[in-house]
TrEMBL record:
Family according to the record: Belongs to the insect chemoreceptor superfamily. Gustatory receptor (GR) family.
Protein's job: Gustatory receptor which mediates acceptance or avoidance behavior, depending on its substrates.
Protein name per the record: Gustatory receptor
Keywords: Cell membrane, Membrane, Receptor, Transducer, Transmembrane, Transmembrane helix
Bilayer-crossing regions: 16-34, 46-67, 87-110, 148-166, 253-276, 282-303, 353-377
A UniProt-annotated Pfam family: 7tm_7
Membrane topology: Multi-pass membrane protein
Cited InterPro entries: 7TM_chemorcpt
Subcellular location, principal: membrane
Length: 386
């Protein structure tokens, strides 16, 4: 049974990658065509796809905003009980709409950077790591599948929340347009998540090659070690690529994390108002903790992937220390290892946002704690209405 599970994960990961690619083309989020005339397939920006993406997504947003204003007069019972909840809900809706507008603009504005990143990833996949493509990286498949499942869970939670809240009578076409907006934002999230995972996979493969080289030199001190120069070059290229990936998607990440954490606040606040203030102990209340858990799981997956990539880079430095224990070391090997170790110690795989903070476990805990502190402040502020 466990062998079957291991075999099916890479297959599912490939299908998710295909679904993300075709979905991004369909919604105008990936304005590139494949140029297969070269030895290694490369991507090229398509003016037609760029125009299609901008026009289709902005028309979609315009229609959604217009319909939302038409039905804004509808007021839930929870909003009557707690005006603060209504204000928070409106603010978060504005944040989500603004995020959609800016993210679609950035897809156009930063398309040249994304094109460069994708082409370098393709070169790594089909040239530098071509001989190692058969190796299965368990964490790559596992985290990609988990991310896809959380995105499906968020979309299902959206429908459940819409139809489970008492008095919520939004028309079907408005719900479907909001759902499509959620799909486009989730696809954007998948883009940088896949980019980070691919770079992690290449570091994992590179570490594997370093371990093989150490084993060979232990058995035979006179073995060829020139491959370490190639590995050093690859490591340096991966560092540059990771930095470019963080710069290309830093504003999208900030907007999506902000809207996600703010959404967690309003979900908990809905639960407090319905469950504690209104004493509405019905089955539909289960929807709120379910949605909250899925959002936290999705948020923590990205934190985990960034932290995992950073630790994979740290593991490279640990593997390099093993070279110092080898007997009969060559001076050229020692020079190469020292240069490699210096690079590992001075440059790290850190997903840094706007040069201010890095995405890792420590920062993830701080974000979650800050979210709950804001919730406590709001409850204290609106205590008399609860």
């Amino acid at each position: 049974m466990f062998e079957t599970s291991r075999d099916i994960r890479p297959y599912l990961a490939r299908q998710i990658l295909r679904a993300t690619l075709y979905g991004s083309w369909l919604f105008g989020l990936f304005p590139f065509t494949v140029d297969s005339r070269k030895r290694i397939c490369q991507l090229r920006r398509s003016c037609g796809l760029i125009v299609y993406g901008l026009v289709a997504n902005y028309i979609h947003l315009f229609i959604l905003i217009r319909l939302a204003f038409e039905f804004k007069k509808q007021k839930l019972e929870a909003f009557v009980r707690s005006p603060v909840l209504e204000i928070i809900n409106i603010i978060i809706a504005l944040i989500n709409t603004l995020s959609g507008i800016l993210i679609h603009f950035m897809n156009f504005w930063g398309s040249r950077k994304v094109e460069e990143i994708c082409n370098k990833l393709l070169t790594l996949e089909y040239q530098d790591f071509k001989s190692l493509n058969g190796r299965n990286c368990p964490n790559f498949s596992c985290f990609l599948i988990q991310k896809f499942l959380t995105k499906l869970g968020q979309l299902l939670s959206f429908f459940t929340l819409i139809y489970a809240i008492p008095g919520n009578e939004y028309p079907l076409h408005l719900v479907l347009l909001s759902f499509l907006m959620g799909v486009t934002l989730n696809l954007n999230t998948m883009h940088y998540h896949i980019g980070v995972l691919l770079i992690y996979r290449y570091i994992w493969l590179l570490n594997g090659q370093l371990k093989v080289l150490v084993s060979q030199l232990k058995r035979n001190p006179g073995a060829d070690f020139t491959s370490i120069h190639q590995l050093l070059s690859l490591y340096n290229r991966l560092l540059e690529l990771y930095k470019k990936l963080a710069i290309a998607y830093q504003y999208q990440v900030i907007l999506l994390i902000t809207s996600q954490l703010a959404g967690n606040i309003v979900v908990i606040y809905f639960l407090i108002v319905y469950g504690i203030s209104m004493h509405n102990f019905s089955v539909f209340l289960v929807v709120f903790p379910q949605s909250l858990l899925i959002n936290i799981w999705d948020f923590w997956l990205f934190i985990t992937v960034c932290d995992l990539t950073e630790k994979a880079g740290d593991e490279t430095a640990i593997i390099l220390k093993i070279f110092s224990y080898l007997e009969h070391r060559d001076d050229r090997l020692e020079t190469s290892v020292n240069e490699f170790a210096w690079l590992c110690s001075h440059r790290k795989f850190r997903f840094q946002l706007c040069g201010l903070f890095c995405i890792n476990y420590k920062m993830g805990f701080k974000m979650i704690i800050t979210t709950f502190l804001y919730l406590v402040y709001l409850v204290q502020f609106d205590y008399m209405n609860l």
